[in-house]
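1st attempt posting a full record on here, be nice pls
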Amino acid sequence: MRSRSKLLVLAALSVAPILADEGKWTPQQVLELDARWLKQQGLELPVSRLWDPKRGTGLLAAAVGVPGCSAAFVSASGLVLTNHHCLFSLIQEHSTPQRDLITDGFVARSREEELPGKTMRVTVPRKFTDVTQEVEAATPAGAADLARSRAIETKQKELVAACEKTPGNRCSVGVFDGGLQYVLIESVELTDIRLVYAPPRAIGEFGGEIDNFRWPRHVGDFSMARAYKDGKPYTPEFFFPISRAGVKEGDFVMLMGYPGRTYRSLTATEMANERDFRYTLDREILGEWIKLLEQSTKGSADGSIAVAATLKSLNNSHTRAEGQLAGLARGALIDKQKATDDAVMKWAAGKPAWAKALEAKKELDRLADERRKMGPHDYLLTLVNAGSLTLRDAAILVRLAGERQKPDATRDPGYQIRDMRRLQAALERDQKSIFRPSEEALLSSWITRAQKEGIAAARGADARTLLGATKVDQAVERSKMFEETPEQLHARGDPMLELAFTLDGALREWKARADARDGAVARLRPAWRKAVIAHAGKPVAPDANSTLRVSFAHVKGYTPRDGVTFTPHTTLAGMIEKNTGEEPFIVPPSILEAAKKTKAEKIPVDFLSDADTTGGNSGSPVVNGRGELVGLNFDRVWENVANDFGWNPDVARNISVDVRFLIWLLEDVQHADHILREMGVKQ
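the predicted structure (as tokens):
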């Protein structure tokens, strides 16, 4: 792959071949890193085993994507290992008060017992192609920012459509650092995913929100599924063998997966917007919604199961927002970014080659200042998809009906023919999570806030009236609505649909503003990032964007504050010590009984390393220098949550569940020898 950013990285390597552990590196960049440095760190495999430039694949392709998370193939028969919370919606889908898999866990004793999921999918990377020149060439010279954004979007659709003519392909275009580079990503999408194993919730969520983002942790955050293709178990080209030896302090590890989004390429002014709107409002509004869900389901087993996945997601996002805000303040990260911005500007000043970079920086800051004017208003529009499922489904149905009137190539992303099966499955899946009292509480909260921010569609709306008269929350009717035109939806006279029609105008206006801003960023960010990379004089990994990355790290503890030092491992003995018999510290009787037959202090549960991670890395395989799986990433420590904005090696620690705990559970508690044999752990 050759591109401007690649040449810059190569140039930087010649200046600074010794690297820090910071960086979520793309497969292509791994080939450009100093092989001697990687060997010194502990990599025993040839770099080409990780990624073969001739074939465009390698061991990294055993790290696969699941919705919102990462995962790993761990057998030749499509066995997928990921976090418990990453498969939670699949577990919830098959749970009832009479058969509560969330609480009790699940083990498929044969392939016939494996449980299929409606919306679960696995994407397996197959090929990466630099398409930066093609995308840039599609933008008319001197185009306005909105036109630029639309031209880029059109070209991306064309590239994806051409790519998906290959049978079995699922394609996307990854945008790196706002437009510094564009990469066409070819993947295989597997949609027949079946639950194989889930621990009891008391193990998969041990410590709950009290321990979330905290260390020490004692949680078995793992579950298993199997990927099928054409009715048969999928046979991956690459999968990770399991290491029974595990890891010890100081060991080299690699963390592979699909980190969602980081903000290190932003200017300090742009970072302040993320702090003041995204995370401040997340903390306030999501905190309110969590309380509403808990109150509205109190005493209802059906309600608790229905909102379980939503509540879990909201809790995690809320706690993460609190951690981001605390970390930004504690580490003075925005002030540090301003100092870095100023240093780059001072370095570039007076150099004609960097004049465009200086102008780009000023313009990015001006756009950030403009964006603040619409901050809370626009944020509430984004929450249409985060609260009431009935409102969200109505908004999807209305947008879908409108987009269906257009040629497929001109439809909004997410509403093309290629997206229909996924959309329909998601709408069907929502039925399992709809609980009327909770819907009324969340919808009422959103309406009240929307009215306060002057969102016209919310004027005069009442949650109870809307939900009492709508049929959007009825599976059979919603299925019919999926195929209807705007005229047919209007003819229903459904008040929730009418609210969605009115709201659709505001959402389209918001999208136009967002598209224009994206067009400006595509024009400005590359120029500024070139200067930043040149000034750094060393390899710079692009911000996370949900594409395949690898981080290099070592197992190590840390000192979060004066007088406190944490070791990098926890054990089953520590879990038992935390046992109170009350939520969220309940150790199931089966675990307590099995623990009596072993030395609990010898069974590792979780461990720390200094891998560079973020949201989306949940479920990322953690492998040793030989490419053997030793754990699964699931969290960061509290002091490291704001790592999305800036790297601090003193507290940059991620938390992984130790594969030896999984082996012990399957062997001594679940007696699931058939799974252990499939993973090659047992004969």
